[in-house]
Amino acid sequence: MEKVCVIGAGSTKYGKLEDSITDIALKASVDAIESAGIEPKQIQAGYISNVFGIADKQVHLGPVIMSNLGIPEVPSLSIESACGSGSVSFREAYANVAAGFYDVVLATGVEKVTHTGTEWTTTYFSYCSDFFYEGGAGASFPGLFASMARAYLAEFKATEEDLAMVAVKNHDNGFLNPKAHLRKKITVDDVLKSAVVASPLKLYDCCPFSDGASAVILCSEKFAKAHSKNYIEVIGSGRGGSPAALQGREHITTIPSTKIAAQAAYKMAGITPKDVDFAEVHDCFTIAELVDSEDLGFFEKGTSVQAVREGRTKLNGDISINPSGGLKSKGHPIGATGIGQVAEVFDQLTGKAGERTVKGAQIGLTHNFGATGASCAVHIFKSV
Amino acid sequence: MLSKEEFINNTKLGKILARKCTKCGHPHLVTTYFCQNCGNKGFEDILIEGKGVIVTYTIITVPPDGYEKYVPYAWVVMKIDNSELRISGFMGGIRSPADLPLGTKVKVTGHDERGIIIEKQ
User: Is B56 in contact with A122 (Cβ distance < 8 A)?
Assistant: First the structure.
């Protein structure tokens, strides 16, 4: 296999955006191309992740984006894997470069849903669940994670205040991120007093519905060495699956696909969780970050809550978790999120993260899953 | 392969139609084609009593389309008695966590536009 590098990254601001899905996807793509210092003609394939293009009247986004970049002849793949679409797309891009099919590829993720309103998004997101048992029995996505939360709180003697601390920490980080959707500091009290969405989760336990696009340029190490002085290397890539419905899982407080993907990525990278300096993890809800941090091996089962209480996951703590602000504060444009995580790692490891820089970081990890973790991808990156 | 219709008809009788692997005995809900434990394709039908206990749940206050008139309601996961299987569904009449402690005994009673219906025993 070829070694694969990321040589450029770009993102729009996440939030409520006025421009069309195509326009924001193009903006992020052009920013990534310029960040990489390449010409569109050098791109040999495109990987375009998106879930609800239908909401903005544009599906089959791949060819539209390639055409607007002036390279209509270049093949593209339009990818949907619920909230994990971005990382799954990145993996396909990675695998194709690693296999030697292409030297340079573009991976762009995009979502545009805020104009549809809360009822539409709540309903359509529920179609990402195992619908007969979950969405089709009244479960919203907050409801599925709330069920995980109730089981976790009971099993590990954690509290709703503990969940709130995850939100506060991620908003502290997102406050330092100019592209974050919810760029404001909050308190534990703000979270606890916010409206209940699906008990025990409240509004501030939940990530927002966001619009946004992110893009990265992947290439072979040979190309990176010849064309760039500012790039990072992909040293681990893993994927995994879980029973699609929560009821199919023996333990509801763990996500099997995360463990499988992480073990594969660590093995490939030849590192252990202790070697990771910072991680962008899938905190669609506060409970998810606690579960993820354990499934990724940063903390023993049931102890991530103690780590949060002690501030060990804060920016420049023992391990900085979600220095970008995470899905919770940076925002969650679902087709873009997994690519946006890679863009954050690129910025962190190439000195572009400004005030939210993880000091001295050399190894960053991204973790992104679809639905309640039915599909998952983990990637590990190293500065060069 | 058994149909969703047969599964649904059985929920109305308080039963869960499941499939047991003929090779390793692992139980599955009807929609599985291959054994998740050993990969075998052979199954025999088993009818399980739709009774069990609450493993976890949520109380929904911001519902998907079609559920507005039921708010607040619970979506629950129950562990089926004398089986490794769990099943989830809709449970009405739950307003606060005090109404439904974990471990509460519940039963499957049917299926309608709300999905699989679970009620207290």
Answer: no
In a domain, A95, yes or no: yes
The tokens for A321 are: 């978790």
Please say if A332 is a catalytic residue. Answer: yes
Helix (H, G, I), strand (E, B) or coil at A66: helix
Residues B78, B54 contacting (CB under 8 angstroms): yes
Type of residue numbered A205: D
Tokens representing A120? 């539409």
Residue whose tokens read 């593209």: A76
In tens, the pLDDT along A237-295 reads 999 999 999 999 999 999 999 999 999 999 999 999 999 999 999 999 999 999 999 99
Q: What is the pLDDT of residues A341-380, one digit of tens each?
A: 999 999 999 999 999 999 999 999 999 999 999 999 999 9
Q: What is the C-alpha radius of gyration for chain A, rounded to an integer number of angstroms? A: 19
Contact A238, A256 (CB under 8 A): no
Q: Which two tokens stand for residue A228?
A: 């760039």
Domain that holds residue A105: 4-116+209-227
Whether the complex's predicted ipTM is more than 0.90 is answered with: yes
Q: Check which CATH number belongs to the domain holding A12 and give it.
A: 3.40.47.10
Report in angstroms the alpha-carbon separations of B98 from A161, A244, B59, B79, B102: 19, 29, 11, 20, 10
Chain A residues in contact with B56 by the CB 8 A cut-off are: 147-148, 150-151, 154, 252
B4-120 — its CATH code?
A: 2.40.50.840
